[in-house]
Amino acid sequence: MNDDARPAPEPRDTPPHSGAADEVNRQDPSRRSVLWTTAGVAGAGLGLGALGAGTASAAGASAPEAVTAADAVAAAPPRQGRTMAGVPFERRSTVRVGIIGLGNRGDSMIDLFLALPGVQVKAVCDTVRDKAEKAAKKVTAAGQPAPAIYAKDEHDYENLCKRGDIDFVYVVTPWELHFPMAKTAMLNGKHVGVECPIAMRLEELWQLVDLSERTRRHCMQLENCCYGKNEMRVLRMAHAGLFGELQHGAGAYNHDLRELMFDPDYYEGPWRRLWHTRLRGDLYPNHGFGPVANYMDVNRGDRVVSISSVGTTALGLAAYREEHMEPGDPSWKESYIGADRTISLVQTAKGRVIRLEHDVSSPHPYSRINSLGGTKGVFEDYPERIYLEPTNTNHQWDDFKKYAEWDHWLWKEHANPPGGHGGMDYIMVFRLMQCMRLGLVPDFDVYDAAVWTAPVPLSHLSIKAKGVPLPIPDFTRGEWKKARSGMDSEKPAE
């Protein structure tokens, strides 16, 4: 979960953007505020032109214009390399890691890398030197050699990626920097894992797919929610046929972040809040989308083909500001357009339906929904409950704890994992590093990353076009038709 990474300016290798729409939301021209808003201009241009059609802004998009633009980008460009589907890592005795971004999330995740045998943290990077130095002390305290520190300027991550003693780069930074950092890592021969979302534009998703295929480096969305205990149990049950023929699922990120987004000590600056001044759609679909896509073998026998999104008015952040922020606070210069709640319906090639929700701006208990239904029954989370025939016939929910026998081997082997988010962070890092050490195929790849993130720009455009269904590209270029392994793995021999 990338709820807490630190900002840095837009790297030099990204093309210049233009867009006057963001002018109303500019902060005072300090170094960091200029960087935030420069990145924001890219987001403000996320209309039809950003989809690759080079036409009008989505702010005035009609349904026909939106469909025409989305059709243009949905058409797969010619493959520049070979598929990365089913490609294993190179086997190695030690995985050498470089970490970019050491805010709240990065600072906690480095502990998990250091807890694993066969993993060395060789370099750390953050624009705030104190944070990089704090991380370096953790490395030496764990008994490893002092890592190299990259904190010279906003481009120093490029030097980390150029090192010859790093196998894997972990990117934990604000969203607008995920794409250029992943790109730089692959161009320098590194496998890369990125917090979600992996990019903010469809054209960037295609570039990451092409780069992964050309460089033969894996580019992965490190979606920790796929490794949740309930998610992995449901995954195995679905694949064993307990739900019958799968028909529908739902996932969400409904998490009241109002207080955190206005807290200057939690996020270093307003980078996350400012995305609500640029896009109307689902800014954070991955936590809900990833697990359901896994249940349905998306990119491994099925694929998502279209998305239709609607959104409410944007009232929550402004109301919170009215009640809690002083009159002179810089947030009063911001105009929020992001829907308080977005709802998207995603259709698959096999006729299944996935519902996605996003709401971080209104009062709501935390929920990722995490639901799956088929011809034999249904599971719903938050709270967890299940109803499966022939066991259940009385129209009453049953206790999901009765199905513990279906727990994934990772959770049976690590019953009480350390780390945050109920242990799924540790399970994710353990499994990724295991795959790299043993030369296994990763549980998910660049195609999954692209699919799970595609709702960011597409939901924005669909909402602007009054909910018109838009095509989701086939990032696999036909490979989805082939059944292959995913997260429902067998325990490997060490």
Proportion in β-strands: 5-15%
DSSP strand count: 14
Distance between the termini: 29 Å
Order of helices and strands: HHEHEHEHEHEHEHEHHHEHEEEEEHHHHE
Q: Into which percent range does the helicity of residues fall?
A: 25-40%
Radius of gyration, taken over Cα atoms and rounded to an integer in Å: 22 Å
Low-confidence stretches: 1-59
Mean pLDDT: 88
Helical/strand content category: alpha/beta
Largest sheet: 8 strands, mixed
* Count of DSSP H/I helices: 16
Strand order of the largest sheet: 13-12-11-7-10-9-8-14
Oligomer: single chain
Q: What's the shape?
A: globular
Describe the structure.
The chain has 494 residues and is an alpha/beta fold. It is 32% helix and 15% strand. The chain is built from 16 helices and 14 strands. The strands form two sheets. It has an eight-stranded mixed β-sheet with strand order 13-12-11-7-10-9-8-14. It has a six-stranded parallel β-sheet with strand order 3-2-1-4-5-6, sandwiched between helices. A hairpin with a 2-residue loop joins β11 (371-374) and β12. The longest helix is centred in the C-terminal third of the chain and has 15 residues, at 424-438.
